[in-house]
Amino acid sequence: MLTELEPTEIPGHQPSGLGSDDHPMRVMTRRAAGLAPGGWDDAARAEVAAFFDALAPSWESRTTPERAAVVTDCLERGLPPDLDRAGVCVEVGSGTGAYTAALAERWATVLAVEVSLEMSRRAPAAPGHRVIADGARLPLADGAAAAVVLVNAFLFPAEVERVLGPGGVVVWVNSSGPETPIHLPAEELVAALPGRWDAVHSRAGAGTWAVARRAR
Prior knowledge:
Layout: E1 2-4, H1 24-32, H2 42-55, H3 65-78, E2 88-92, H4 100-104, E3 109-114, H5 117-121, E4 129-132, E5 145-151, H6 157-163, E6 164-174, H7 186-192, E7 197-204, E8 207-214
């Protein structure tokens, strides 16, 4: 079941204007999620890592209070009240760490996973545990995560299903909504995940978000 919540206004929030169906990271988003031919392999991983390595020196300029407000809105309105806050939150595509502290306020442990070495080098050492890894091959045991958080990051459905424990959630944020290069609408997010899921989703400013949980 997919439930839409009322939107939240974020004054001054403007979309990036970068997202389009032919953007290389939009193409890769759909490949990673199994929604387009090509899939994910070592060549794809290397291409994405190189892409973000090149952007790393200027990445901080893309972090704005309005973009952070999209993430905050998702965490405040989307997370279920009975969520396990003592468990591990896996932040896939953590970049330079703009949102890790917000996650650390809500979970006891945050594993910040990033495929780009240059991005990770620019991230603070704390509060998250920084790990260079492919989001399709997370360094976690089966069922070890209380949450998998993807802020403008690729969804690897089978891997999310593998690492997420009972009652855990998938948090999906696109800070510029459909104009985010790495974007999926909530309907496609839920359809891509294996099995049956319930989700809430909404718009915050120009951004969109969804929180999904296995159907009970």
